[in-house]
């Protein structure tokens, strides 16, 4: 009897879960969705990788001046692009919540902050063709009415807060994604990606993983977009938020995947946004700081794959690869020589060198 009851509860849980997914307000039937992209990314948002039909009622499209079209699952993801590329965008459309048709976003009426769930944001944003329709929705579900420019500004103003929440949610997903990637994907496909959607499209186009369902593909894409999500922070170089690279002046905490460190005997530490700048400092310390190399206690670099702090003098470095750091062409560090050699082959590197083999002319 207990086994039967347990099975019933299990099956009810699955059915209830599926009903919840089907009842998500943003979701529509594929036949009712208009997708404007034609490439392998046509079904997902290029920014976050989320399925466009699942979040269709908050979709936005952007046509760029060069004719390229993109579709985003939310105003949040559009805002991510708009903040840096507004001058490249020709026009923007949004899905009308009622008709499900794409309409001119500049003429739409947005209900912001209703009781309906948001997409990529704790605050929901739904658009309507007419103010009458927006008022009716507001009366039933709450919120305030804004035009497109006002709604976009509100979204941009809370990008940092929303992204902090999203980053926290992505950590366990990325940890799973790392395990999946290491066991079911081509490890040579690691590279720098500007978005989760870009990573997902790259995996699809290059057939990098075998037998992944949509959730597994999303997890791998999140991990590849930002391996820091899955990294053990306790094993990384601990960078003060206000630490600036003494060579280029950039804030190093913005680039933890590339961080390098020089510790001095007097307890002072220098932080760098890459091995290249660290070595520039090492070869000419008095140019950047009044001390000699004899005062150096320890030098650390960030292993490219594990992101762990590694003794710089015991590491191996790939020179001339097609992977670039914050300051362009970089010496890519590895704690393992075999991994360095494999990376060199996979990424068209010119040479693997030890610390003692790095010469000043290599970094100019």
TrEMBL record:
The transmembrane residues are none
Q: Where does the record locate the signal sequence feature?
A: 1-21
Instruction: Respond yes or no to whether keyword Protease is given for this record.
Output: no
Q: Does the keyword Ubl conjugation apply?
A: no
Q: Which PANTHER family match?
A: HTH-TYPE TRANSCRIPTIONAL REPRESSOR YCNK
Species of origin reads Arcobacter suis CECT 7833
Output the Pfam families linked to this UniProt entry: NosL
InterPro entries reported in the protein's UniProt record: N2O_reductase_NosL
Keywords of the record, alphabetical order, are: Signal
What is this protein's record name?
NosL domain-containing protein
